[in-house]
Amino acid sequence: MNVAVAAADAAVPDVLCVRDLPFATLEALLAQHDLRLHGVEDGAPIPGSFWGEPEAGVIASNVYVRGDTPVHSLLHEACHLIVLPPERRAQVHTDATDSDLEEDATCCLQIILADALPGVGRARLMADMDAWGYSFRLGSTAAWFEHDAEDARAFLKQQGLPHR
Q1: Strand partners, 64
Q2: pLDDT tens, 30-48?
Q3: Distances from the Cα of 17 to the Cαs of 49, 71, 137, 144, in angstroms?
Q4: Residue 93 above 90 pLDDT?
Q5: How far apart are CA 18 and CA 25, in angstroms?
Q6: Three-state DSSP class for 132?
Q7: In 10 A of CB 82, how many CB atoms?
Q8: 38 burial level (CB within 10 Å; 0-12, 13-18, 19+)
Q9: Cα 46 to Cα 164: distance, rounded to the nearest angstrom
Q10: 59 strand-pairing partners
């Protein structure tokens, strides 16, 4: 075994990945929000990925993932598109927003939508977000979601999106 590869693998947090769930389940969830999910071959570049591989990518109403893309990343990037009005969504390529409120709404919605994925759910998704390094002022994703996401919930409610 290549020591450099083993060290790199050890640095990747143990989180749920796209390959751990039925692709059709992920496609169906995104389709409910007029998004299309595209699988990219393992090892190939992911179109529209802001952070680079293995993070999900977005271009207009399309979300791109590989098998090693974390589920939290797929949901996060999809939720960036979901919170945008259609005219802004159509213009997205790689970077969805620079709005703090939209970023918070995206994080909140990705947690809520995790309940629609069998074997995922809010608790697992929030643990994966913490393991990956998401940073919230209350310390953990769960603390933020339970005690500091009122503005995000209000934004989602105003947009007619799930907010609880």
Answers
A1: 38, 57
A2: 999 999 999 999 999 999 9
A3: 16, 5, 26, 23
A4: yes
A5: 10
A6: helix
A7: 24
A8: middle
A9: 31
A10: 62, 93
